[in-house]
Every structure is written in structure tokens, then in C-alpha cells.
């Protein structure tokens, strides 16, 4: 197949269970870049959480963040596309979280906000202690009384952290009735809330229109429900062995798991070997 872009989800796909990019995945993606193929990370994360990975892979093109709510040019930090949660709707979501003791993170252009005593935020704080200043994730904590101050920011996504499946499903049902919102599971215990219409697939379409790229010439890797629209948009979707069944059903190839460098395995066997022959 002709390939112009290789688009990779991060958690559960490009990253292993330790949150690292394996040497094999790094090598395979760098080989693609040497061949003139752009490697694009498409993640539910904000780019503030991806700086070290961008550096490791030496990416120079574009990045899709917040499940498609934000698309940026890496080298210039230029915003190519963005879609925000409107202020009134964001207020309802954040108030619901405070009033129902739901842990959350709010992604803005320059800061990640959290409720206090949120263990996921504490994890990022601990991670920061091992990172150099340029790669640290900016985190701040807010209280209920500070919601108005937070709403002065552009909000791309609210991440709900809830390990109890029944409670998470209940929260998802509550917000799925809000027409201004898109709600999707991105990993076990995580619920992503964005503006209506936001998806990785929609972001890829907008970027391809901007750069005149035929999506039939795009390969994409993913593992969870927030990758579904991306799989439907591209020419060659590849599911991880650890992917949910809906993603596997929409794939053209199922590679090894994220803990077995599945991205590299697929690139080597479906693309690089063919090129070398």
C-alpha cells in the first residue's frame, strides 16, 4: 500500500503497560520517517503530557490531542484546529463531578486542572519529579469555589476517572443525553468528555483536507473505543491484540499487543518487508 501517514494512538497502543515506547516501536517509526512518511500521534491526552514522547520519536509534523479536540503543528506550536466545550456545558460537567465526588482532570491549552486528592493527578506530579523541566506536565488543583476562574480557560476535554464500572457507566449515561457533548471510553476506568462531534476520526479528516492527503493512504493503530472513528476514516486500520472487540472488528489487521511492540511488528511485516523486497 502507498502510505503518507502513520497515525498512532498512545495508551494501550504505542505505549506499553509501563507507559514507555519500546526500542522496537521507536526504531520502526523512525524508519518510516526516514522514508518520508509522517508519524502522527493521535491521543486522548493533551500535548502537555506528550512532550517527552514527541522528543523521543523526533516528530516534526502534526499532533492530534484531546481525542481530536485540538490539532497542532509540533515545531511551531501552531493550532491547526480546535473545538472547545462551551462554558455553560463545561460548568455543568465540572459541578457534577464536585457534587458527586467524581475524580476528574480538565485539559486546557496550557494547564491540566484536577480536583484535590485525585490519585491520577498525584501520579503525574510524581512523574514530574523524574522529568527535566521541559517535559514536566503543568498541573494545578481547583476547588468548587474556583469553577468560575477555571471557566475563563478554553476547555478541550474533561477526563473522568472512575474504577467502578457500574458507576462509570452511570456517569456516561448521564452525559450521553447532553447534545453538546461527545462521551467515549478511552481505557478501563476512564471516560472522556469533549464537545459534540469531536473525535480522532474527525480531526484526521480535517487535517487531511488541509494538507490534501488521501486517507486511503493512511495506516492507523488503536486499541479502544475512542479510536473507532479513526479506524472508519483511514485506509488501513490496525488493531492491537489487547484491543476491545469493536476495534478488532473494524480493523484490517490485528497485530501483537502493546507489551509486545505490536506497532513495530505490524510496520515490519506489513510495510517495511514489502518495501525491502
From TrEMBL:
SUPFAM superfamilies: HAD-like. It comes from the Bacteria. InterPro entries: Cof (IPR000150), HAD-like_sf (IPR036412), HAD-SF_hydro_IIB (IPR006379), HAD_sf (IPR023214). Gene3D superfamilies: 3.30.1240.10, HAD superfamily/HAD-like. PANTHER family: HAD SUPERFAMILY HYDROLASE-LIKE, TYPE 3, PHOSPHOSERINE PHOSPHATASE. This is Cof subfamily protein (Haloacid dehalogenase superfamily). It comes from Sedimentibacter acidaminivorans.
